[in-house]
Amino acid sequence: MLLDATTFGLVLTPEAALGVVQRVVTSKGWKKYDVSDIKLVYVPFYVFSFDISAGEQSPSGKAALNAFSGDLSEFVPMLLDRPLKKTRSTAENLEAEVEASAVSMQEAKPTAQAKVASQVGAQKDAVTISAVNKFYVPFFRVWVNVANDTFRLDVDASLGFPLGAEAIPGRPKGWNEATSETLEKMKSPAGWLELGGKTVGEVGSSIAGAGKGGKDGALSNRGVQVIVLLAVIGVLAYFVLLGGSGGKTSCSADAAYLKKPNLFEAAGIAPREVNGVFEIRGKCNFTNPGKEDEFGCTSITLIADGVPTKYFKTVCTSKPIAAGINEPRSVPFILNWTDDLSAKNYDLQVVKQ
User: How far is CA 123 from CA 47, 84, 120, in A?
Assistant: First the structure.
């Protein structure tokens, strides 16, 4: 379907979007849920720049106005900073719905002006709107039945960012369930690392509580002291004896993009330039030693001279990985950008989602 404005090419598949929903729901503590509907929706937005006259300080920025609902979005402008494919047509092989533009281009400026003024608490005349452009953003709209209620999640089809996840309540865990999960995590080095990280957070809170309430801090409890000690021992043993986490996900650049070490330089990654576009190609390996089928998904961020850049790639498996599968499933990726960063050293930062 031909659109009246630019849109972004799809990166996620419907299956990958469902994988994002699965992680959102399970992170809230819910193991049972139903997906009642999923559809691809192209939502119209007016992306604009704004300037606010406020005495000596004159803040400015970018935002987007949802042309269907009239709501402001700070997420959509982020898409413009990503090297995403742009087109004027909806996806060819998927049935899609295009939301109507209830706000016209003529109404976009005054509406955005009023919305920004209301949000920052300024007078409407103090807000200047410029550079208004219309875009369609593709979302996989998923309706999820969980906790005896129905929730809508809009998963951005370009970056895999879930909107509306905060509406799903967390499921409280009973004592028996929490204990069982803790014991299960203690069976693996990765579980020990997770417990150790959580314990550090609890220790910080406990110290703060002890400072305010004296001897009533949680660390005064003998049982908590034992748990902290066990966690610390586990983390130390994990790093000293096992040398770190193998993890369920690993990503690496292809051999053609690896820089060989020499007397003057250490090993690293060497991006290639093709027609003004810099790229790194590689693959991510996903395994699932767990007890339930799950999608694999990770985020790869470009590191230039030790500093994370704004360029990243979301990589997901197209189908769930069967439980108990330790043989890696490989998914290729291409990370590209157009700015000449002129960095001496490049690397990839991998964060499992």
Answer: 21, 36, 9
